[in-house]
Design brief:
With 456 residues, the protein is of the alpha/beta class. 42% of the residues lie in helices and 20% in strands. The protein has a domain at 45-199 and 437-449: Nucleotidyltransferase, domain 5 (2-Layer Sandwich), CATH 3.30.420.40. The protein contains 16 helices and 13 strands. A six-stranded mixed beta sheet has the order 1-11-10-9-12-13, sandwiched between helices. The termini are far apart. It catalyses: a D-hexose + ATP = a D-hexose 6-phosphate + ADP + H(+); D-fructose + ATP = D-fructose 6-phosphate + ADP + H(+).
Length: 456
């Protein structure tokens, strides 16, 4: 039991550890405003200088390329804050993720053609304008242009890094005889911020908590010294907080370090590897393997790790969600998951309780670290005192992603952690709101904004 308790304690963050995360992320947010180091991909200007008004109208195409799926959409902006959406979703296979750039962008064009057929859009020889949400690091050079800097989340495409995304997409469209012009390129967090501001004007921060994690917020343009474009008052920044995090302040366990060491790019996205849905289940698996080998858990296995639990990513974050959703006192879901997915039976009451506690601790740590990152953004946007303009002002954080939406109690845990960090008075003026489909709707809105002079 002592070994198990020691392992569990590694995932429980102290107030000092949380403060170190906030201070460290804040320092990196400030550093990212001025650095021109190509290796530092944080604080990327979006070239978007205002939020939508709700009066925008027109038909726009949109694609949202994330870590798991490609979504294509025809977005009808109807004015008065109303939107009509026709959307298709396509799984991005491992073969596509690790193949050639040409194959990937031909596939995207094929998916777009499928959408156009579904909505019966006859393009003729006229161009349709598209907004693109791209959930990977870009060096944005204009509202519709960006150089691909890095791709995590299992992607390893050839002939893509260092190239302009607009050219890659439009060349693929041309190969498929589609008259589509890329009018806007945004990150998924920028899309979340823009689209949620469309329905909730108090939105100042957009966050993704899904396969990966990232955030965007509104910054005074004068603070962004690395921005050399046309003069503007404010700018939405893509923080790329996934790529932040240094060993000096991140409370990494040996399991976090192992995940980083065997990843495609060790030393990259270390914050994300401690927080996001892609890695939460793997953290649990590594801890379980270690505890089984030390005979500190699952005594029925006598220290032998079952083959079914040995492959990387074998313990899915979905299993964590299933187990935490079970409110029974005997944690019956633990036994069911282990029997169904790993062929392990005969779990004792103590085993089920311990496994539940381990899973809860990993999920809780993710929520606390996400809250700490939000606190860092609030401090950066409002100053260290976090004084808002008046006591009645509300700041909304729009959050998209399966972890925030579907993981049991995650939103509640985040809000509780924010209260512990900021105090009840400040937290009472902060709203955490679910923001769905921000990628496609946000991309279409930005394409519209760019036409009306709200981008540079």
């Amino acid at each position: 039991m002592a070994t198990f308790r020691d392992t569990l304690a590694q995932f429980v963050l102290s107030k000092d550890q949380v403060k170190a995360i906030i201070d460290g992320l804040t320092d990196e947010l400030v550093e990212g405003l001025s650095t021109n180091d190509p290796k530092n991909i944080t604080q990327q200007p979006s070239f978007i200088t205002r939020l939508p008004t709700g009066k925008e109208t027109g038909l726009y195409l949109a694609i949202d390329m994330g870590g798991t799926n490609l979504r294509t959409a025809a977005i009808h902006l109807l004015g008065d804050g109303q939107v009509g959406v026709t959307m298709e979703k396509h799984e991005i296979t491992h073969a596509l993720k690790t193949g050639t750039g040409e194959a990937m962008f031909d596939w995207i064009a094929d998916c777009t053609a499928s959408l156009l057929k579904n909505v019966s859009v006859d393009m003729g020889n006229s161009d349709l304008h598209m907004g693109v949400t791209f959930s990977f690091a870009l060096h944005q050079t204009a509202v519709n242009r960006g150089i691909v800097l890095a791709m995590g989340k299992g992607f390893d495409l050839s002939d893509v890094m260092g190239r302009d995304l607009k050219d890659l997409l439009e060349t693929g469209f041309a190969r498929k005889n589609l008259h589509v012009v890329v009018s806007a390129i945004i990150n998924d967090t920028v899309g979340t911020l823009v689209s949620h501001a469309y329905v909730s004007p108090s939105t100042k921060i957009g966050v993704i908590l899904a396969t990966g994690t990232n955030a965007a917020y509104i910054e005074k343009a004068a603070q962004v010294s690395k921005y050399k474009g046309p003069v503007c008052d404010q700018m939405i920044l893509n923080t790329e907080w996934d790529a932040m995090g240094k060993a000096s302040y991140l409370p990494q366990t040996k399991y976090d370090k192992e995940i980083d060491a065997v990843s495609l790019v060790p030393g990259f996205q270390e914050f994300e590897k401690m927080v996001s849905g892609l890695y939460m289940g793997e953290l649990v698996r590594l801890a379980l393997v270690d505890l089984i080998q030390q005979r500190a858990i699952l005594g029925v296995l006598q220290g032998q790790v079952p083959e079914s639990l040995q492959p990387r990513l074998a313990f899915k974050t979905l299993f964590m969600s299933t187990i935490e959703s079970d409110s029974s006192t005997d944690h019956a879901a633990v036994a069911k998951v282990f029997k169904t997915s790993f062929g392990v039976e005969g779990l004792s009451d103590q085993d089920r309780s311990n496994i539940f506690d381990l899973i809860h601790a990993v999920g809780q740590r993710s929520a606390v670290m996400a809250a700490a990152a939000c606190a860092a953004l609030l401090y950066k946007a409002h100053g260290s005192s976090l004084d808002l303009d008046d006591a009645s002002e509300i700041t909304t954080i729009g959050i998209d992603g399966s972890v925030f939406e579907k993981y049991p109690h995650f939103s509640h845990s985040m809000l509780k952690a924010l209260t512990d960090i900021l105090g009840e008075d400040r937290t009472s003026r902060i709203r955490l709101e679910l923001a769905r489909d921000g990628g496609c709707i946000g991309a279409a809105l930005v394409a519209m904004i760019s036409h009306s002079g709200g981008a540079v």
